[in-house]
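Open question from group meeting: does this chain pack into something compact, or does most of it stay loose? Before anyone orders reagents, we agreed to write out a predicted structure and look at it together. Recording both the input and the output here so the notebook holds the full record.
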Amino acid sequence: MIKDRLVNAETYYPLSERLQQGFEWLKSADLETLPDGRYEISGDEVFANVQSYETKDDAPYEAHRKYIDIQYMVKGLEKVGVSDYSNCSSKEDYSAERDVEFLNCDICDSYQMLEEGEFLVFYPQDAHQPSLNPDSKLSVKKVIVKVQI
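Structure tokens returned:
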């Protein structure tokens, strides 16, 4: 897992050309006015999902096998649980079509606060529990860039 501010995204460009494409799109798009939905950046290799929702009291952990997540907070604040995949067991079978497995995790390694202008990068070993209330329900706008491994 990586946590940082979008202004520092260039630090991570050497990790992957696809990650770089995702970060460059985040930096160039008018995210505040972009409607919810899917946006292609580089076909199925790199694309973005813009989402607006209210945070929740609880949410399942999830993990992905084919894509890395860049979760970027446009507006609002949410708490995100993070655990190593090895600390978890399957709650729902992995869906290859949706590239998601929902999990029960015995250990939460940390809770991260995702604030406006910040991103979290989750790799397949990073089980994550997004969309949680920081203290109370909040409306958020978030972009999840999916980067094919």
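Observations to bring back to the group:
Residues 63 and 112 are 16 Å apart (CA to CA).
The first helix runs from residue 17 to 28.
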